[in-house]
């Protein structure tokens, strides 16, 4: 057996091999030491070799721990019945489990997608394949630079990354943005010819042309399929055709913007996803996250989502009913994936049946509303599959197949008989005993059972001579004789083997049902998509009703007019939120926003970005009216952040993020800047902030808001007609300042930093001294005067002359 083990281990050197021995999965040698340590189980030994094992029925929780600790686990099963085996039982690895290839609910973390991401590269363009094996989703995209690749990785948070060997130097960079299990996959796995073959075979296609994948994307997709074949062994027919995300069809959000705007992570402050999520299914929750990461840029698609949200939000009863029905739908995406890859459990079929039962109600609800009819008609009812499940499956099937508690009575005559036999064996024996008593006339005749002889008929010695001919003597005791009859022997055979036969019959019936329902996997996946989208859209309708959101309208000239807008997250946490207008257009497309500390600048500028993201994923927005452009990208440079582990100081990070904006923003982007230039000396900071602003305004020309305490920057409005100043109003009272949070035209007179320091509890002696210093240095400062010089005619002329030279190609990024 150890020889057998070592052969297996030799083929799976990079895995912990869990070797099935009876009721345990055992590990040996170094694996045993490691497993004992990771799982905190006892390290024992077998013939002097280290060994550690876990009971087979608790395997899931142990595997989960090993995988989350970053190990690959090979499951080596006994692949023949030990009772039938001649000599050593045959054992084979039936599955290699890795963080990105698991699909069991018990192993998956919560409701989030569990992506495996594959990367290839050609001439500086990265091909990226993202696949969630547990839901069957396959997404393909490309990007042009490492920072963009890192953005994709940090936003989609894959559980595992397959990195082409020639790209292994990127591992360090990837590890700075992702905790994924990174596996280097040898280059030959990415060879185009074999990848093409794999993709064609996998999808049973004659040609891959219509998939619209470039050669690099095909290589990455083929490599993924090769990897899955070496880990999962079972068919993975549930994986959908690749959906190509063209970067031009979605709004680009880089990793720092996702973080700065708190789109996903809550960290106690509330995130956009948290306040928008009123979905009632796991599929809906995953879809919402995907939508948030990829807002649309196609107005028609956005309007289609908005139409549904509007119809649902206008009909309270319909919305409530829909929510209730959807609440009864299980995680079909994952169930269907397990069905299609032969890993479904009886509970999966039960959940599928219960979900299918609800479909007619949802469909009826939607088709009866003219504007929702089209969505309703996309819901297929799967009556055939439901009928089979109704007939075949018990109301509450047990979790495991084989005990006879899964298949409903009446579905299989043979199974019913076997179960009957087991359940009624006592009755049946009594009946046999009564018949034998009657036939022999011996009232003291007994039918008995013991482990050595099985079933037998017992007659007292005195009556033995009356034993009929068909009685065969089995044993003679002092007071009695024991016999067997052909009928009793047949009964015994049936009873003893009934358990085993129930087990195998139920298994094969179950497999047949799974296969039959699994044939509709593709259509069931389509149903999952329809239902998950519906769930997100009802979630949008629910929040729109609850919080008074309005339907956004879109313009094509970049003009923006949002009236009485609110910050979707902050408004949920403050007692009374002061709404503000947002405008971009002829009168100004670049705003310098000054205002005291704590006045609401950051809130206002984030709110502008958040409202656009909400609108472009198809949601209503917190405002009384919203006319918006469709942005291709949103950039934010907000807050102080360092990356000490990556060797980057706060100011370097700030400048790198700014450089990214300058190189990537287009005329159709939105740029939100908060305190750029604050991480260095005032003179350096203002100079950088000033020239960055000029560059964005002149060379890029996109809608921009720049919140700053450098009031000197407001002088820019003197030089450029499209740069305007805004400030946040406060009221100075005897007791201190009152924050009104109202954004108005103009420039802040003071920063009121010392007032805020007072609110924070800085001792009064420190505050008084600060006031004194402020009075002196404000008088002495030559900065204001110096900045004003910049707007004098001569310097403006020089600037104009230079403007022609402004060329975006001159920008070099630190990180490209
Ligand atoms: N429009 C508003 N209505 C109600 N409360 C608001 C509004 N805007 C901001 N606030 C409240 O004021 C607090 C401070 O706002 P914010 O952080 O936006 O100020 P700031 O001007 O950016 O400050 P600093 O310059 O110190 O960074 C917020 O946490 C929020 O509670």
UniProtKB/TrEMBL annotation:
For this UniProt record, give its keywords in alphabetical order, as a comma-separated list: ATP-binding, Coiled coil, DNA damage, DNA repair, DNA-binding, Nucleotide-binding
Main function: This protein is involved in the repair of mismatches in DNA. It is possible that it carries out the mismatch recognition step. This protein has a weak ATPase activity.
Q: What is this protein called?
A: DNA mismatch repair protein MutS
Give a Pfam family name.
MutS_I
Gene Ontology CC: cytosol
Would you say which domain of life the source belongs to? Bacteria
Lineage summary: Bacteria, Thermotogati, Thermotogota, Thermotogae, Kosmotogales
- PANTHER family named in the record: DNA MISMATCH REPAIR PROTEIN MSH1, MITOCHONDRIAL, DNA MISMATCH REPAIR PROTEIN MUTS FAMILY MEMBER
Q: Where are the transmembrane segments?
A: none
In the UniProt record, does the keyword Metal-binding occur?
no
Which PROSITE patterns does the entry mention?
A: DNA_MISMATCH_REPAIR_2
- UniProt feature coiled coil, ranges: 412-442
Q: Name one GO biological process term.
A: mismatch repair
- The residues that the entry says bind ATP are 595-602
């Amino acid at each position: 057996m150890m020889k057998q083990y070592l052969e297996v281990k030799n083929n799976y050197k990079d895995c912990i091999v869990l070797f099935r021995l009876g009721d345990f999965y055992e590990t040996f040698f170094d694996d045993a030491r490691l497993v004992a340590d990771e799982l905190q189980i006892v390290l024992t030994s077998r013939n002097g070799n280290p060994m550690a094992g876990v009971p087979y029925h608790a395997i899931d929780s142990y595997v989960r721990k090993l995988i989350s600790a970053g190990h690959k686990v090979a499951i080596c099963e006994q692949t023949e019945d030990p009772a039938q085996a001649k000599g050593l039982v045959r054992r084979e690895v039936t599955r290699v489990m890795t963080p990105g290839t698991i699909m069991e609910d018990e192993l998956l973390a919560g409701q989030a997608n569990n992506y495996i991401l594959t990367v290839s590269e050609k001439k500086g363009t990265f091909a990226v394949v993202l696949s969630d094996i547990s839901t069957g989703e396959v997404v393909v995209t490309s990007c042009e630079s490492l920072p963009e690749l890192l953005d994709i990785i940090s936003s989609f948070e894959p559980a595992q990354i397959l990195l082409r060997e020639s790209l292994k130097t990127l591992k360090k960079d990837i590890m700075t943005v992702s905790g994924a299990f990174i596996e280097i996959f040898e280059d030959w796995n990415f060879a185009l010819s074999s990848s093409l073959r794999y993709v064609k075979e996998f999808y049973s296609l004659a040609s891959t042309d219509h998939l619209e994948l470039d050669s690099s994307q095909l290589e990455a997709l083929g490599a993924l399929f090769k990897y899955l074949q070496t880990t999962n062994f079972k068919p993975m027919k549930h994986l959908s055709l690749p959906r190509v995300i063209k970067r031009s069809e979605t709004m680009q959000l880089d990793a720092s913007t996702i973080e700065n705007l708190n789109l996903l992570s809550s960290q106690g402050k509330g995130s956009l996803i948290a306040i928008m999520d009123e979905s009632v299914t796991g599929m809906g929750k995953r879809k919402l996250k995907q939508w948030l990461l990829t807002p649309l840029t196609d107005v028609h698609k956005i309007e289609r989502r908005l139409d549904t949200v509007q119809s649902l939000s206008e009909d309270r009863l319909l919305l409530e009913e829909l929510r209730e029905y959807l609440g009864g739908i299980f995680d079909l995406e994952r169930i269907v994936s397990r069905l299609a890859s032969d890993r479904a459990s009886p509970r999966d079929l039960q959940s599928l049946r219960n979900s299918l039962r609800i479909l007619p109600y949802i469909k009826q609800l939607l088709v009866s509303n003219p504007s929702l009819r089209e969505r309703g008609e996309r819901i297929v009812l799967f009556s055939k599959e439901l009928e089979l499940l109704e007939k075949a499956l018990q109301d509450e099937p047990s979790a495991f197949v084989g005990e006879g508690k899964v298949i409903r009575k009446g579905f299989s005559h043979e199974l019913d008989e076997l179960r009957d036999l087991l359940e009624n064996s006592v009755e049946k024996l009594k009946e046999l005993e009564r018949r034998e008593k009657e036939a022999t006339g011996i009232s003291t005749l007994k039918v008995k059972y013991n482990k050595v002889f099985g079933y037998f008929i017992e007659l007292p010695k005195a009556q033995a001579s009356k034993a009929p001919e068909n009685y065969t003597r089995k044993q003679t005791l002092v007071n009695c004789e024991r016999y067997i009859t052909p009928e009793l022997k047949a009964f015994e055979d049936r009873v003893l083997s009934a358990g085993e036969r129930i087990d195998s019959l139920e298994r094969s019936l179950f497999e047949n049902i799974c296969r039959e329902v699994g044939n509709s996997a593709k259509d069931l996946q389509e149903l999952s998509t329809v239902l998950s989208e519906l769930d997100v859209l009802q979630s949008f309708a629910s929040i729109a009703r609850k919080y008074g959101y309005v339907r956004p309208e879109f313009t094509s000239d970049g003009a923006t007019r949002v009236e009485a807008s609110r910050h979707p997250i902050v408004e949920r946490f403050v007692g009374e939120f002061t709404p503000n207008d947002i405008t971009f257009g002829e009168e100004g497309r670049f705003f310098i926003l000054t205002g005291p500390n704590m006045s609401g600048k950051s809130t206002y500028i984030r709110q502008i970005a958040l409202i656009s993201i909400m609108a472009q994923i198809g949601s209503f927005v917190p405002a009384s009216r919203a006319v918006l452009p469709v942005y291709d990208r949103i950039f934010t440079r907000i807050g102080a952040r360092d990356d000490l582990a990556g060797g980057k100081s706060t100011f370097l990070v700030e400048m790198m993020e700014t450089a990214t904006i300058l190189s990537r923003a287009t005329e159709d982007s939105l740029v939100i800047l908060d305190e750029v230039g604050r991480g260095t000396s005032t003179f350096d900071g203002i100079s950088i902030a000033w020239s960055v602003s000029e560059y964005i305004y002149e060379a890029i020309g996109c809608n921009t808001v720049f919140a700053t305490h450098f009031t000197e920057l407001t002088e820019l409005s003197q030089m450029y007609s499209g740069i305007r100043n805004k400030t946040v109003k406060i009221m100075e009272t005897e007791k201190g300042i009152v924050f009104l949070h109202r954004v108005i035209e103009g420039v802040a007179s003071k920063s009121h930093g010392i007032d805020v320091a007072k609110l924070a509890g800085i001792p009064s002696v420190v505050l008084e001294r600060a006031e004194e210093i402020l009075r002196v240095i404000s008088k002495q400062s030559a900065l204001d005067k110096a900045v004003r010089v910049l707007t004098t005619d001569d310097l403006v002329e020089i600037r104009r002359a230079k403007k022609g030279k402004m060329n975006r190609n001159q920008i070099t990024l630190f990180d490209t």
